[in-house]
Input
Amino acid sequence: MSLTKIGSDLYKEKRWPVLGYVGSGAMAYLSPGVLFAFSAYLLSKSALKPGILTLGVAIGSVRFFAVARGASQYGERLIGHGLVLEYVARVRVALFESLSKVVPHRLTPGVFGDLMAALNGDMEEVQSLLLRLIGPMLSTAVASLVAIVIAFAFSVPFGVVTSITVLVMGVLAPWLFYGNFKRRIKQSSESRSNVYRSASSVTGTFSERRLLGDQDVLVEDLLEKTARSSRFQVLLGTGQIAMACLEALVEVAALVVTTYLGVTQIEHHSLGKVYVAVVPFLLLGTLEGLSLVAVEISRTVSTAPSIRRLNEMLSFEPRELPSCPSTLSDQGPLDIALDGVYFSYPQSKRPVLEDLSLHLNGGEHLLVSGVSGGGKSTLASLILGGRLPTLGEIRLGGVSTRHLSEEVIAEKVGYLGPEPYVFDATIEANLLIAAPLATSQELEESLSKVGLSDWLHAQPDGLRSKVSMRSENVSSGERQRIALSRVLLHQSRTLVLDEPTANLDDENEKMVVELINELFADATVIAITHSELFAYMYRYDKHLEL
Amino acid sequence: MAAPLDPRVLRGSRRRLILAGAIVVLEAASALLLVLSSLQVGRVLQVVVVGNDPRSALYPVELFGIFFGLRLASVQLASYVALRLGSDLADQYRRRLIDHSRSYRVAESELGYLVTDGMQSVVNYVQRLLPALVGSVTVTPILMFFVLSQGVLYFVELLVGLAVLPILMIVIGQATRDRAVEKLDATIRLNALYLDTLYGLGTLKSLNKAKLQTVSITRATSKLKRSTLSVLQIAFSSGVALDTLVSIVVAVVAVSIGIKLNDGGLTLGVGAAILFVTPEVFAPIRGAALQFHSSQDAVAVWDRIEAHVGAKDEAEVEQREIRSIQAESKVDSDLKSLEFCAFGVVVLERRLELRLTTQLELGQWLGVRGESGSGKSSFLRALVGESSSVGEAAIRLGPGTIRALTTTEIAYVPARPGFFEGTLQDNLCLYRSDATVRQVGEALKVVRLPDFEARLSQLVLPGGANFSSGERQRLALARAVLSGRDIWVLDEPTAHLNPSLEKEMLEDLKSLSETKIVVVATHSELVTHHCERVVEFSEGRCLLQR
Output
């Protein structure tokens, strides 16, 4: 999937609304010019005291275009936003589907957070690109074409001047601006992200910085970077104004030249004198829209990274699926075997795991420890079927992960990561995702097993109380224990724990490790950690140092 | 109803008042130039259509070009002045917020946004809205005066239009306000739901529920689309009603000019000039009304900054500031003891009243114990002056000499230490930029991370994301050891450590702190073993155990 593909699918389905959008847009951009031109015609004609019929038609047309302008504008905005919002809705669903192919085992948690943070801004960029640039550009293009045709209908010189004007204002001026400012726009967006990073350094070190006295280097750095980014913003704003001036110059020149032409042609009797103001006024009305679009074009540079990021997120693919997928037996904890496992990431040559062999009987506990970057999380991803070993085999209950889908594995093997998620919903709903058929009593039991009975009783509405990642009533320790009770409800007898205590303080860490020891004594457990305390407390049969 | 222009734009700056004055002059000039151009347009039509003398139309065409060109130039210049004014204002607020963040906590998600994109929306607001507003009180009256001088009828027609405009806006605003608020709420809620599901996708996937959720996410996004569209519908209808009204007034004026011309009661030149200026009478008001919606973003940004900066004054009243006393910064070496006199924290909502009275001599440690949530961290934060406190904590320098603690003599290791983007070396030397490589190496040995000496030039990601939480804790401890400061305040310094490592580390720390005073919050018996004084926080009270 990509943004373009979603767009072309939408166009195929909604060809008529799209054409209606462009048509009503063109009408909206054209009508001020036509209104102006008709009024000028009406005036000139009136001065010559024409018949009542001519006057009546002219008056009628002026009123018609006045109302048509409003109507077409409303139509353009409504159809346009309808289409764009439909597009955005499809992109959202596509993103969900695409991400669900790789989370949680093929995206590192940190990267996931970054992508999410970027997501909202990126969507807005794309939405405003469509609404403020692509749509208006198409509409003004059509409106300008119509204006050119009308101008040619009066005389060839009119047509030529109009075409040149449209070309200069719509293409040449924005291109000039783009060419001159491309580098600066890029620098400006870099300086902006520098500010964001510097600001996060400042906010993240509040406690330490307070104690620095007068030498708060981080704040000084932020001040300097903000000043730089603000200078770029002023520079770009000035550039846009310079371009608007250029556009204005071209516009005035076009008005003067067309009036000149009109006057000369009337002198030579090749044009009726009442038409003297028609073409210049038509231009005056139409060019306004064109100059607005030209300014918008300069924004595209800043949209490019957003489009790239979204396309990246849309293009995730699931790992190749087995041709004849196997299932896992229902019986008890699985034994896990690693047989000469090598793994390296596609982009790098250096293997993360080298010739790893290990056998874990059902019910045995394994501790995996080692330095950061030693391949601990990769191992979790391999066991859970998120990735396949480059060489060698991993067997769960005797079946190679090459023959198992991630879904089949997830059904039998529980997973607990470092950042457990609590949905913005009731406690009940948060637990039911693990076991949709569980009764309230079962839910309460599972909470009491992880020591959350008192916590549950302190909630205002019991199981129906709301929780979320932001709410104060759930601490990080409680969050991890809710995740544990989900694992219990899911009745997994085989478990992979990836740094489950990384975000907990000592007290909560102790509690969670004790719970793991107690609740999963009979299960096959692979616990990955770099916490010394965890390793010290965890009851394990085998130890793997990576 | 909010004021059309936020008074903060001009408040407290002479420079900005001058710039605003310049905008008034430029807008007035543009109105006069427009009147002059319209008179030339009238002359052209008059001599060509009625006077049958196209030759003599060439001179007014040239004049029109000059006047109209100058008019567009003055409009752009006004926009440039407004840009400078806006960026001046933004710079002032940026500086205020960043200065504020020196001593007060600003959320990470806020600071970066507010000083970049947030402030950019303030600049855009000023750049677009200010000229339009100034135009409403200069351009509109000047043009109306011109129209009045040419004929009362057109003046009255325009006046009716101008009077209906605000009435229409208010009526539409009233009729749609509740609906708009309600729809906007629904939109925000649905968007939050989508993001919540996306953030928790990993959890859903590991419980094998991601596919099921696709259906409900599709439903939610299309609902989101519908509710967004109905919010927009309301906004468009008011904008379009405005535009239609303007178009109709222009048409009415054109038609009545036409009829008057036909009667012979008006010359074509005057009629054309009036028609030419008619749309411009409404342009500034229309422009201001269109900007009004987008101005809400800017005002929100502003309010958030003021909420931060303004909160400071209140906080200062409550908070016992740790004063930096310049004259005494040299006497640190004379430090004899740290005295607590009913010092601590009182939090009524949490029923905490922790007041400690004790004395720590040089080389002594105070252990602070208690369960999670008992107020240990709050007590430490109060001690370093990060949050409000009661009572006194003072330094005794010698017999009879007592002074308050200064921030620059404390090294603090919070429960979640801060790291910034920069090299590991920079991060470790935050308190003391002149530390030598040898000193850094020794500090790393103390915290049992000797391997990190080879990684000193490695870049640290924001928040220290490329280190485990145990490593972060120990690096922060190394930072305190390096600081050379006299008072160490440590929050769970040995989290995630195994007991044997913890024991070794503590012995080193103890011997290094012979000339220091240490306050340490901990769960660990090993830590309290090294403490000469121990205080236990339990059930909101404070019990001195040693």
In short: The radius of gyration of chain A is 34 Å. Residues 3-314 of chain A form a domain with the ABC transporter transmembrane region fold fold (CATH 1.20.1560.10). Chain A touches chain B through 147 residues (CB under 8 Å).
